[in-house]
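Just wondering, can you check both lines?
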Amino acid sequence: MRVEVDQSGKVEDTRVDTVLTFSNRASGSILIPAEVKRECVEFVRDDRHKTKTLYLRIFCAGLFLLLESKLPKIDQIIIDVEYLGREHDIKALLLRLIWKVYPTFDPDNIQFASVGKDSPAHVKGYSVFTGSEEADREISFKEIRDFL
């Protein structure tokens, strides 16, 4: 299965919720509330090493939580280019999480490309972000803390 992934509401904007969605034959969405993102910032505030990559780690943790149950069926993940120039870092962080539960997952299955506004992933994400549709799952600080 090939899935496209999109983000609505940047992770680093701690004033708004972040929605991560995937779509193709199947679809799913998660909501990371702004309050949870602020808790993450507070949690790593005094650790300079962790602070530098905090938002990428939150993004990757969200991606992992979004896709975790579908990983055995996924053979291609197309991630929208949200952090230009950081694709290698995102891929490395995401693979580290995936390989803990699915060690045979092929790194070449993760790619980056512009998803576009007509993508079902973008449409679903925007619907959840604007409140016209509910997320499939809301992520808590406790769920994301272990990834930080």
Q: What stands out?
A: The two ends are 29 Å apart (CA to CA).
